[in-house]
Structures are given as C-alpha cells and as structure tokens.
Predict the 3D structure of the following.
Amino acid sequence: AQTVTQSQPEMSVQEAETVTLSCTYDTSESDYYLFWYKQPPSRQMILVIRQEAYKQQNATENRFSVNFQKAAKSFSLKISDSQLGDAAMYFCAYRISGNTGNQFYFGTGTSLTVIP
Amino acid sequence: NAGVTQTPKFRILKIGQSMTLQCTQDMNHNYMYWYRQDPGMGLKLIYYSVGAGITDKGEVPNGYNVSRSTTEDFPLRLELAAPSQTSVYFCASREGRSRDFYGYTFGSGTRLTVV
C-alpha cells in the first residue's frame, strides 16, 4: 500500500524566517513523483513544487526547495524568507509514474501559520 | 481562464436527497478525478476517468456514481445522501502524456453538508 505521512499537523514561522515541513512515504516502486501542494483558505489546491524520484538533484522553485532522500523515503519542503501569503495548508503527495490513471496519494496536511 | 470549474461551491442536502456535482475542464485533459477531503484529512480518491467513456473506482466509491460522456465533463452523482458524505469535494484533471510528470489542475471545491 502507498502511504504518505505528514507528522506535523501544525507549524508556525516568523515572517522572513525559514521553515521546513516534513513528509515521509512508503512505497515499493522505484519510479514515482512527489509533490507539494498548497491549499489557502480559498480551498484551491496549488502546486508548489515537484520532484522525479530518479533525479538526485533536489527541486527548487524560487523560495521553495525540497530535501529528497530516496533511501529514507523522505521529502521535506523548505520555505525560505517566509511571507504572510505562505500561510496555508500544505499537502505532500505521491504518484507512481507511467501513462495511466494512477492516482495521487496525499498526506493529512500541515497547517502553516506565518507570524508577522 | 482555462482550468477546472466546479459547481456548486456550497450545498446543503437532506438525508436521502440526490444531487450532481458538476466538473468541467477546458484544457483537453484526458484524465479526470474526484476526491473528497474530510476535516483534518488528506484527499481520498472517489472515482477517476482516463478518457471519455472510461471510468473506474478509487479508494472510496461507495455512495457515488460518475459518467464521462465527453472529454470536458465529469459529473459526480450522489444518489441517497448520508451524513458521512459531508465533505469538501475536489475535481481535478491532468493531461496524461507518457512520462507525465505534471501535477493535477484542481477545481476550487464544493463544500457539501448533509443534514
């Protein structure tokens, strides 16, 4: 079974500081994708960053970066220079690769508060 | 703007009533999905479709039905609403190319309350 675990239900960070959100996953597959989605109060799910499992280099998107440890099955999200607009629920997600309808498996989310 | 459109945004149903949640995408995506999000939980897959005329069950399909008569539309039907179906429902789509690295495009969600 594929599972995604986010062990931090809530996190807070001072504006302009750095915060890291944790995610671990369980899979027997070797080729898969990992994602972080942001869900603000508007409920819209917004893709933040994504990583292909076969790539060793960690993905980076502006202030967002990941620490992907394939052997440890860990995929943490680092937000640098936190802004008030970063406050949201963050979901880690996993999907097996391939041209199929393979679903995403989501973690239970981490609620991030940004303190002015 | 291109994207996934869900209607309605909010709905209150009485136990035993029926309704259809509408989902339309204008990106010509092959794959479409319905998820539900319960409070404090991640998203759970209800049904998905890999193309017009093809649908399949996800993790939590009981109490729901879907159809996919066109590429654009993927409605979700609740036949006999139950309080356990109180949730936020998300429709999502993706292109589905080979070596598809892309994430979903999500709709804005439908908050459904069954009383």
